Amino acid sequence: MGINKTEKQVLLDVQHLKKYFEVGKNQTLKAVDDVTLQIFKGETLGLVGESGCGKSTFGRTVIHLYEPTSGTVTFDGMKVDKRMSRKQAHELTGRMQMIFQDPYASLNPRRKIMDIVGEGLDAHGLAKNRKDKEEQVVRLLETVGLQAEHADRFPHEFSGGQRQRVGIARALAVNPDFIVCDEPISALDVSIQAQVVNLLEELQEKRGLTYLFIAHDLSMVKHISDRIGVMYLGYLVELADSEELFNNPVHPYTKALLSAIPIPEPEIEKNRRRIMLEGTLPSPINLGNECKFASRCPYCADRCKSAQPPLKEIKPGHFVACSRFC
Ligand SMILES: Nc1ncnc2c1ncn2[C@@H]1O[C@H](COP(=O)(O)OP(=O)(O)OP(=O)(O)O)[C@@H](O)[C@H]1O
Ligand SMILES: [Mg+2]
């Protein structure tokens, strides 16, 4: 956790971001549907929610791998959209990077680690010559806990954890300020997960990095996140400081997610009440205007069926989108 809470500076400002996909005749899939949030310099913002709720699409849109359907993304004062000049877009690819869930799928199997990690150095003209590039790649590998001899190997010669370290080295090569970590530990053995989280925390500390850390479940983001956002069907339903979210969850969906986390103390675990949500996750295609959570909410009232409640600050820094608080 990297941020000194007294000096919050906004690095990424996301306003009413929407990303829709046309998926068939007159069918619109609202993958991200009106998300507003800020990410502060040096912090880790955890983003959680079930599979398909739009976490990756959100991450990809903020770093401009996708053009938003509407809404704005502003990075360090710079508007991130298709009107950027080539120079600005190039600068942004250096400052914003992404680490992926499946490091094997995201690393070209036919290229050696030297080329995979060195690619960004070439693209951004960061190496003076071949020798300088090699030295920088070796330094990057050492930074992520690998060794010089690994540069000469192919991705399949590594374990999952090592491959994720290569993915991290590749992201670091261009010296970014901001990294979208898209479920970087979900595919790893539990014993390896903590090592990768520790590495990411150490790098954040040393390099002043800012993270958007995406995960399926709250237990994975608890320790690394300063704040946590909970997404449901493309919408942010709750956002708060990590501790506050765990101690005082407000949205019924957040409560359900929290109740699913096993408690390591057997006596307490025995009495843990798991909140089972009714129904299944609705399809994000052709959704109406009702609250996105209406079909599964135990408190659903008539007013919830006419409009999506906005995200409202119910106490300093704690936001929730639920008509019981609007
Ligand atoms: N390029 C695309 N074209 C059409 N639909 C897409 C595209 N990318 C994502 N989707 C759809 O958008 C929705 C959100 O997908 P997304 O991958 O962002 O979810 P996620 O929260 O990252 O899920 P997971 O936890 O499984 O990674 C899903 O219904 C998905 O099928
Ligand atoms: Mg995803």
How would you describe this structure to a colleague?
The protein is an alpha/beta fold and 326 residues long. It has one domain: Rossmann fold. 31% of the residues lie in helices and 24% in strands. An eight-stranded mixed β-sheet has the order 6-7-8-3-9-10-12-11, with helices on both faces. Strand 1 and strand 2 form a beta hairpin. Helix 6 runs parallel beside helix 7. The site of magnesium ion has 3 residues, from helix 1.
Portion of residues within helices? 25-40%
| Highest-level CATH class | Alpha Beta
Summarize the main sheet. 8 strands, mixed
Kindly estimate the percentage of residues that lie in beta strands according to DSSP. 15-25%
Number of continuous helical runs = 11
Annotated CATH homologous superfamily: P-loop containing nucleotide triphosphate hydrolases
Can you count the beta strands? 12
Q: Which features would summarize this protein structure in a list?
A:
326 residues, Rossmann fold, four-stranded antiparallel β-sheet, 12 strands, eight-stranded mixed β-sheet, binds adenosine-5'-triphosphate, 24% strand, 11 helices, alpha/beta
Short description:
The chain has 326 residues and is α/β, with parallel strands linked by helices. It has eleven helices and twelve strands.
Write the layout of secondary structure elements.
Blueprint: E1 10-24, E2 27-40, E3 44-48, H1 55-62, E4 70-75, E5 78-79, H2 86-95, E6 96-99, H3 103-106, H4 113-123, H5 130-143, H6 160-172, E7 178-182, H7 190-207, E8 210-215, H8 218-221, E9 227-232, E10 235-241, H9 242-247, H10 252-259, H11 266-270, E11 312-315, E12 318-320
Parallel strand pairs: 3-8, 3-9, 6-7, 7-8
Antiparallel strand pairs: 1-2, 1-4, 4-5, 9-10, 10-12, 11-12
Helix pairs in contact: 4-5, 4-6, 5-6, 6-7
